[in-house]
Design goal:
The structure is a homodimer.
Chain A lengths: L20 E14 L2 E8 L2 E7 L1 H4 L1 H7 L6 E10 L14 E12 L16 H6 L1 H4 L3 H23 L3 E2 L17 E3 L7 E3 L5 H9 L4 E9 L11 E10 L3 H19 L9 E4 H8 L13 E2 L1 H4 L5 H8 L3 E7 L7 H5 L1 H7 L6 E6 L2 E3 L8 H11 L6 E7 L1 H18 L10 E5 L4 E4 L4 E4 L14 H4 L8 E6 L2 E8 L4 H10 L4 H15 L6 E7 H8 L30 H6 L2 E3 L6 H5 L10
Parallel strand pairs in A: 3-5, 6-9, 11-17
Antiparallel strand pairs in A: 1-2, 1-4, 2-3, 4-5, 7-8, 9-10, 10-22, 12-13, 13-16, 14-15, 14-16, 17-20, 18-19, 20-21, 21-22
Helix pairs in contact in A: 5-7, 5-18, 8-14
Chain lengths: ~600, ~600
């Protein structure tokens, strides 16, 4: 028996195909019987087309088609004809034609799916994940996976054209001493030893530069065994890039060209180049975030100098204690209700703030709990600095810089959304640069690397190693898009003397450093070129291009927030003999009976 | 301080660049002082160029360059000049020019490498793997990695152009009930449970077809925890492909076009299409192998019918016992020495044979231990079947079919090499088709799937399910190249009734099948399209294109035969706290003191 295999695809047929005899393969989207004439909408990857079964031309095919139900797989042969203009369907790309079927083959039957195969229906996500193979038939999932595939192709084409070599680095590798929690893989051959899955190909990409490859890239799977949030997956994909003999400016310029091409060829948006560059310090000051959403203004203003001698006690005392006082002018929000104003307090608390002072400007008058403590000249200075006008709502946070940034940065984002300041069709890229090299770890009482211990300091800040290491800025950069970090990287240290200074600042002797980073430091002794790189968070980038808000929508077979694959039911128990071969055994805590009965997996995908 | 960053690459400069001032970055390949004039050969990814430091034009740069040693990283600026034609170096692409250096920067110093950075030097492989970052600087390693990257690009470009979607499937997945040994990953969140690393994306690619993606590909990492041979790695790469609504012929034709493009654009060879197709039965009969090297003839002949009544006892008794007698005519080998002829016996033994009879044809006379037992008509029949001529050496194997195939198949390969019948510049592709669907497992006393339980039987053999399942041929195919299997796949079962017959033949009830393959069988109930696919062994394919004989040469950071990464020293011991978080502990056998002291790792990389 020869199968009736497709000559055309459902979604691509138009009036220009009228008169042709075509064979189509696809799934039954919908089936209607109108007085003995059967209409079946047939769906494949390209779209939907209407097929018609009529006693006048379909013969036996009509009776066979009559038994088909939704999601049956059919092969049909028939002639493309133009529909009666009155029955044109403007919702379908193929809406001006239909197929008069003369032959049919039921390639396969189908049970009734647990949810309709179409966009926009409300389905519990855990059900979608369990039946992912049906969920993937929905047009919006296919569109997103196509966009993902296309995006990868654009990255590869661009990089290939610029002389980058794609190199695959190991998945079974060594547990790293710093960073997130590793996934481990017990070795069968080497008793008691373990591989680790890579958190990123960081070490390998640097070794490839030592190896003289000059330009490397890889669309690499990475693994972090962290507690998950909505925008994290235990395995994720990054476009990993490393170069030698390039300056930071050259590399960033190249990545801008790449991003511009990506946006042009996926969403049809022409980006303005070069991207805005903003220092980490400015980003934190003006937007309260190191990944500012720059699609709107609404900048935060530092008013510490104005209120340091204020009668508003909390302002004065915070200023005296080394804290900061900052304000955000919510234009036009003076009309907020008392309830809305009251809600500012729990909002601030959510981000660690102790409170949020406010002032409304209505009918030329300043109102609010703190107004009576403000001096004439403070009001004048605030009016000028904050550009105060009739109808404004002024909000104030006074605390440690980090808390103020979190509170006002998040208030800024909320206002941006609530006030409709954000143009959702806009893709606003920017570089955040000049990150601090080191951060002070209060617990460990030592400096830790903000990026990683091989990040190159800015040349002009090297002298701070001896005086004030906290002031050193790094040649590190993040690429932000609409308030998300979509990429990040750094130039790397390649001179031994700088590396030694770095380890000293981190409180390691060279011996300790060698214990931690042995072979990488060895490698650096054999002629390391100046190098640096970047990694793009591919899942997140695709999510933003696709206009989705959940990473799982961009991944064919994602895991839930509890790192479960609901489709294959992984992880799962394994045979004892498997563990014996790996020289391990499980050590289980006795489970309370109640917990065991609670059936945890069902709700896990919705966090 | 601004770095002197490259304006050009070393290996690309030619006479057309004469007169230009260029800046180059690279590694010192060689340094010669000829009477106060210093010549430094500078190397980057593109090749080597000669730079000259002369007191006449180099100023301070000469003294700085004088301190440089092999593998120092230099930046030089200078003018491209033509060399005196008498000093042209024909071994270098840049041999007609040199750079008169006026400025230099030592970007980095280098310790003396443990082996010379050049092709063709004898270096112990374990040393190369430990210092892989230096090994990768060797031109032939860079050439191979470039070829690998280019090959991946060609696969992607071709498949993208044919409407294939690249989809990433999970690395953290579920342990499979059949197949090779899994690598396991303990779950932290789900106590006592484990992920497994995929042996291939087989299940996911079929689910993507159920999901309506129609054409999928992925260059996928796969994992098998097997005892390794020279051509195996614990993690390996396959180009994984699956399609819906295509016949086997359509798919194979597409893969031929793809292969032709790959060969054209990498090694510049134009392949003849379509590829030869040979059935599994013919391949075993004629070449004693299911992956025959078809670059040469030397076919094996079945002579069982001729000698079944022979006075050569072993021939007659093997024929009577259901075995086969086959012969290979080694043309022109009648002149072999007695020693060479004697060596045939241990050769046969190595492949499980009990012996190898032989006859030389010299001066018109047949000589050898069995000649006297051959009847006139047997000699006549053999002369005709084997095309016997003066100077031939006839070899005979009599045993079970599998043993005869192994012995004569391997003898054929050895003769092919020894007699110079193999043209090494040739790339001879062929499809081996019609593999048996089932094999009889003597131990388990049941049939097992030769490919996997979802392989589609040939339509015309379906009736054998009821009578003689061993006779069913599968819609399965291997792509062989020069005696290596470089790809393989099958059409899959998509009809429930066929799947049930298959499980029945394998001795499973549908309930047992459900326990093993649960969610995949569930998926098949919801409208599964006819589908099938293939996977290319990417590492091996690149190895053959690069003319190498070892998979490790094609992988940037390979593992040794004992699954060790000598560069990062993985696997390794981990912190006890890491194991506690994963709810496991190690169970170690006490090591005998002698074994512990033997220092196993050192020699492990060679085999």
């Amino acid at each position: 028996m020869n199968m009736m295999l497709k000559t055309h695809s459902c979604g691509t047929l138009t009036k220009k195909d009228v008169g042709q005899t075509v064979t189509l393969n696809g799934w039954v989207q919908r089936r209607r019987d109108l007085g003995g004439v059967l209409f079946i909408d047939l769906r494949d990857r390209t779209g939907i087309v209407q097929t018609v079964f009529n006693p006048d031309f379909s013969g036996d095919a009509l009776a066979i088609a009559d038994r088909a139900r939704n999601e049956y797989v059919l092969a049909v042969t028939g002639k493309v004809v133009e529909r009666d203009p009155e029955t044109y369907n403007a919702n379908l790309a193929t809406g001006e034609i239909e197929i008069r079927v003369t032959e049919i083959e039921v390639m396969n039957a189908a049970k009734t799916p647990p949810f309709p195969i179409e966009d926009g229906v409300e389905v519990d996500e855990s059900l979608r994940l369990k039946y992912r193979y049906l969920d993937l038939r929905r047009p919006e999932m296919q569109k997103t996976l196509l966009l993902r595939s296309k995006s990868a192709k654009i990255f590869r084409d661009y990089l290939d054209n610029e002389g980058f070599i794609e190199v695959e680095t190991p998945i079974l590798t060594k547990s790293t001493p710093e960073g997130a929690r590793d996934y481990l893989v017990p070795s069968r051959v080497h008793e008691g030893e373990f591989f680790a899955l890579p958190q990123s190909p960081q070490i390998f990409k640097q070794l490839l530069m030592v190896g003289g490859l000059e330009r490397y890239y890889q669309i690499a799977r990475c693994f972090r065994d962290e507690d998950l949030r909505a925008d994290r997956q235990p395995e994720f994909t990054q476009v990993d890039i490393e170069t030698s003999f390039l300056s930071q400016d050259q590399l960033l310029g190249m990545m801008e060209q790449l991003s511009a091409r990506l946006l042009r060829e996926t969403v049809g948006v022409e980006l303005e180049l070069p991207f805005q560059r903003i220092t980490y310090a400015d980003a934190m000051n003006k937007y309260g975030s190191d990944k500012p959403d720059l699609r709107f203004g609404l900048e935060i203003e530092d008013i510490t100098d104005i209120v340091s001698g204020s009668d508003v006690k909390v302002f004065a005392s915070v200023a005296a204690g080394g804290g900061v006082v900052k304000a955000l002018n919510a234009k036009g929000c003076a009309s907020w209700s008392r309830k809305e104003l009251d809600d500012l307090q729990p909002f601030a608390a959510r981000y660690g703030g102790k409170g949020l002072a406010w002032i409304t400007v209505k009918d030329g008058e300043w109102r609010g709990p703190i107004v009576k403590f403000l001096k004439e000249e403070e009001i004048a200075a605030l009016t000028e600095r904050l550009g105060v006008e009739e109808g404004d709502l002024l909000t104030f946070s006074a605390d440690k810089p980090k808390v103020v940034a979190d509170v006002l940065g998040n208030l800024r984002l909320k206002l941006g959304r609530d006030l409709g300041l954000i143009d959702d069709s806009k893709f606003k890229f920017a570089w955040v640069v000049d990150f601090p090299l080191l951060g002070w770890d209060e617990e460990a009482k030592r400096y830790v690397a903000e990026h990683h211990p091989f990040t190159r300091p800015k040349e002009e800040d090297l002298h701070y190693f001896d005086t004030d290491p906290g002031k050193i800025r790094a040649q590190a950069y993040d690429l932000v898009l609409n308030g998300y970090e979509v990429g990040g990287g750094s130039m790397r240290i390649y001179k031994r003397e700088v590396q030694e200074q770095m380890f000293k600042a981190l409180g390691f002797t060279m011996e300790e450093a060698h214990e931690k980073f042995g072979f990488l430091l060895d490698a650096f002794d054999y002629g390391t070129p100046p190098h640096g790189g970047i990694a793009f968070g591919f899942d997140r980038l695709v999510m933003l291009l696709a206009g989705r808000t959940n990473l799982r929508e961009t991944i064919a077979f994602p895991k839930t927030a509890s790192a479960t694959d609901l489709l294959c039911d992984a992880p799962s128990e394994v045979e004892l003999s498997q563990l014996e071969q790996l020289h391990i055994r499980t050590v289980l805590k006795p489970k309370p009976v109640a917990a065991a009965a609670a059936g945890a997996p069902a709700g896990e995908s919705n966090q």
